[in-house]
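Q: I'm writing a short explainer about 4-hydroxythreonine-4-phosphate dehydrogenase for a general audience and would like to include a description of its predicted shape. Could you first generate the structure from this sequence?
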Amino acid sequence: MRPVVLSCGEPAGVGLEIAHKAFDALRGEVPMVLMADRAHVQGTVTEITDPTAVFGQENALPLLHHPFDGDARPGTPDPRNAQGVIDVIARGVELVTRGAAAALCTLPIHKKALKDGADFAYPGHTEYLAALAGVERVVMMLACPELRVVPVTIHIGIDAVPAELTEPLLVETITITHAALIRDFGIPEPRIAVAGLNPHAGEGGTMGTQEQTMIIPVLERLAAEGMRITGPGSADTMFHAAARAGYDCAVCMYHDQALIPIKTIDFVGGVNVTLGLPFIRTSPDHGTAFDIAGKGVADPTSTIAALRMAWQMAGQRGTR
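A: Of course. Here's the predicted structure. Afterward I'll give you a sentence or two in plain language.
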């Protein structure tokens, strides 16, 4: 048996206090081990050197010690810790890659702190994980019990979306999503609903032509290959309860089109899942929350959901 390994993220944020709360909530349900500097972690922990030693350690949060160069001051990131944050992520990938852990769950990082302190060259967690895994293309999924969404384009300005939204990108995104729904979520024949780019999905070309020129041909080709796929649909009618019952995942054309519905439905419990990696990675869908760090009020709901989902996916993939 292998546990879920939890990387500490930015030690000046809420991650470390949330780790304790999540452990208390999931004790006996999800075996987990935190990777962090012992000097940064408040409260009782059990230091271990092998992730598999977590089993039977239910009295205190299991900890794999990883030394950092700076202090952990709530709300104030120390640039000396940047390299430690990066190294912990890499260590987590090494553990899951060699089979010492079932899955990786990552607590929030602060990208500016990493860039300032260690010249971090990646836009965020996801791109760094893809580079560590040697994978060119990964997909971001946001998931909660009521909804799964995947944005095709992510952190770009809305004016850049039409040019970025290409046929190869759409095909790769849908294909990776389809495979993950089968392998990691146990859905034998996934039903995927695809949103249009324009209002009313272009309304026959009167409000934009991308649906006719690119999206519809892609969906027709994938359907002919055997995928259960529908769309392009009007995004303003895709997310009410009756519509959601008709699909297992919604693929959206840009960031807010995907994230607004899921954050409206479950603001505190959403999980960020990276699809297309050779290992399982989940993360809470929130940031470092420096404004409340150290006050003991951070909500662990999303981290609890992320750890639980990682463990469930590990069961489906057979990495436990």
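A: For your explainer, you could say: The radius of gyration is 20 Å.
Q: Perfect, that's easy to follow.
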